[in-house]
Amino acid sequence: MSEQDKGGALESRITVRRLLSITAAVSVVLLVVAWAGRDRVGAAFGALPRIALIGSLLYFPFLALLHFCMVLTDRLGGHCPGRRAELNPLASLAVWRSPPASWPRAIRVAVGTPLLLAAFWWAIRETGSGLSMLPQRPALGARLLSDLLSDGADLRTVTRLFNWELHSFTRWWLFFGLLTAGWITALRLLGDAHSRGRSNSELIRRALLFSPWIAALEVAMLAGAYGGGTVPEPSTLFVEGIFSWDRWHWDCWRGVVWVFRGFIPVLATATVFFRAVFGWPIPVSLAAAALSVPAALTLSVAWEVLYMTIRQ
User: pTM score, two decimals?
Assistant: First the structure.
């Protein structure tokens, strides 16, 4: 067989392998969709344009502020990433950059992101409320936005929402942290051949640098709450009727509100996580993300019940 024929046969095998992996990934996603409820997931996809618009208007100003703070701390620390990177807020989302940022910067991003998000959560929350009301009740929505600009918020409200958002953010650190620890443990058993050239140190740094994506997930789920006509948490507990441990159950993640506001954001964010942090192929990342949706939403419900328990 000539070299050209061998190359063509190899290319054909690779193409078939890719098609099989894509088919398997789509099948896994469809199975999880059927488990969650096709009508519920369908409703989430139907509202996706509106939710994406509200989420983008809420998230990108925060991302710009986060990026400015990171550039400022980089300069104070004597690190200059370059003029082009400094002027591009999207650079803060580049988890897949190789090699990843140093330990000090990774820790600053991991700590600074939730603190900054929690500090401005009251503004993000109230802005989202006003934006969500503009299409149906423009006068009320405009008044809410106007009041936010003129009056701001009282210290008690800011403190309460700061505490809530820090608590909320920690569940994602627990979730993605367990995934990272699980993969590092698996690599010890499987060997370095599956690590894709990434050391444990690099995996952990990439996980820490994933923090801005977790902030995007938080904002997306907030936008989903407004898109579904639900008051954001912790009030969501009372909408689903699960506000204490005696009402909590293992399939509570299939609740209408949780699937509507969380299925697509978790699926998208987890896919990016598996791809950018672990370096998995896109079809594998998508399938793994779909399988992680039930666990992520179940943890979200439990975390809200835990919040109510702590406050009592």
Answer: 0.91
